[in-house]
Amino acid sequence: MSLPFTQDEYASRLLAVRARMAAQELDMLIVTDPSNMCWLTGYNGWSFYVHQAVLVTHDADPVWWGRAQDVAGASRTVWMAQSQLVGYAEHYIQTPFHHPMEDLARYVKGRVGVEMDNYYYSAKAHSVLSDLGIRLDDATGLVNWCRAIKSETEIGYMRKAARISEAVVDGMIDRIAPGVPKNEVVADAYRDAIRGVDGDWGDYPAIVPLVPSGADAAAPHLTWDGRTFQRGEATTIEIAGCYRRYHAPLCRSVFLGTPPDEMKRAQDAVLEGLDAGLNAARAGNKTRDVAQALNSALSKIGIERTARCGYPIGLSYPPDWGERTMSFRAEDDTVLQPNMTFHFMPGLWMDGWGLAITESIRISEDGPAECLCDRPRQMFVKA
Fold first, then answer.
1. What DSSP state is assigned to residue 105?
2. Phi, psi (5° rounding) for residue 162?
3. Tens of pLDDT, residues 172-203
4. What's the distance, CA 118 to chain centroid?
């Protein structure tokens, strides 16, 4: 299989990670987040339900470590030599009598950093390594922050993902109608997402389609069921096209019938806030400037939104397409830099209804942020 990036790009990523390791005085980094593993090595497989890791030191190529039967997948996807791929035996898999970290400990040396606040690094894994006498430092986010500024190739992949997002949202808006079962619309959305656009195939996204309707849309993270769409209800669509594991999330809302006045006022305020936030999302400004621009527009109609309104995006695996570093919120002072990428997400979850109109954006070298997707910024109203 061909690598998605050049050897030089992987080398520059490794150099950046090692610099952060040196600043934290780490001899080794145990990388367990599959997004970070892929970013560093190219590894891409659905094997993150068992323990696996990439081991980074200062004086040798990284080591991919995982289940023995997944070594073949590693050899097909990573840039390192076969000698850097090691697998642990099957008797470590999902048993109370052994733990894979007992095997990993054989390769550990010096002062070690681990991604403690990570979906894929369990309390048991940490306990086993600690009980074996290994000194463990918290290195949560070390690799994630290295990923913040995207390369031109990464931006290109995200633009391809954005074309897929557009196709998925177009299809869902077209198919949502009174009496149509929700699961059928989602099934077609999956087809559009995986088929891709113009020969650019779609990968599976890190989050499934979120399509709550009516009062359910007051909650942001509901998926779908077999009920039909109903007249007089709004549906929020949150999806992301995915290409080479790179995402471009996009949200739009669909109302069947005539929207109430409060939703129309909310739409106008959100659109004003989006425009203001995109203008504030400039290199040299801070992440909090985007949140303040949005919240200023919403406050004009009495909406005090306390949730963050954006987060960094890029390469990711389930269960989240965010990169878990900075956020658009009032207390975040991260300085925006060109080629940072975010999901600008000013969703509203109100009493009995919800509204979501969002953009995936790139911080430009000069001027307002670039929207990766190109679709009308509005609540779609269908009779």
1. G
2. -65, -40
3. 999 999 999 999 999 999 999 999 999 999 99
4. 14
| Whether 101 contacts 129, CB under 8 Å | yes
SS3 state of residue 173: helix
Q: Residue 48: count other Cβ atoms within 10 Å of its Cβ.
A: 19
Instruction: Please name which of 162, 159, 186, 164 lies closest in space to residue 175, comparing C-alpha atoms.
Output: 186
| CB-CB neighbours of 306 under 10 Å | 7
* Cα end-to-end distance, the chain, whole Å: 49
Give the Cα separation of 118 and 316 in Å (integer).
Answer: 13
CA atoms of 341 and 287, how far apart (whole Å): 12
21-49 pLDDT, tens digit each: 999 999 999 999 999 999 999 999 999 99
Cβ-based neighbours of 9, under 8 Å, separated by 6 or more: 151, 153
Q: H helices then E strands: how many in the chain?
A: 10, 15
DSSP lists the bridge partners of residue 56 as 29
DSSP annotation of 220: T
For residue 235, give the nearest of 263, 210, 255 by alpha carbon.
Answer: 255
Supply 356's token pair: 């979501």
Element (H, E) at 22: helix 7-23
Rounded Cα distance between 271 and 275, Å, is 6
Does 181 sit behind a cis peptide bond, omega within 30 degrees of 0 on the bond before it?
no
Examine the pLDDT at 1 and tell me if it is beyond 80.
no
CA distance 4 to 25: 31
Residue type, 153: T
Mind giving me the DSSP string for 133-147? T--EEE-TTHHHHHT
- Scan for tokens 């996009």, then name that residue: 250
Contacts of 59 (CB under 8 A, 6+ apart): none
The four Cα atoms 289, 290, 291, 294 give a dihedral, to 10 degrees, of 120
Q: H or E segment at 310?
A: strand 310-312
Q: What is the pLDDT of residue 274?
A: 98
Q: Extract the tokens encoding 93.
A: 């898999």
Total Cβ atoms within 10 A of residue 219: 12
What secondary structure, in 3-state letters, does 322-369 show?
Answer: ECCCCCCCCCCCCECCCCEEEEECCCEECCCCEECCCEEEECCCCCCC
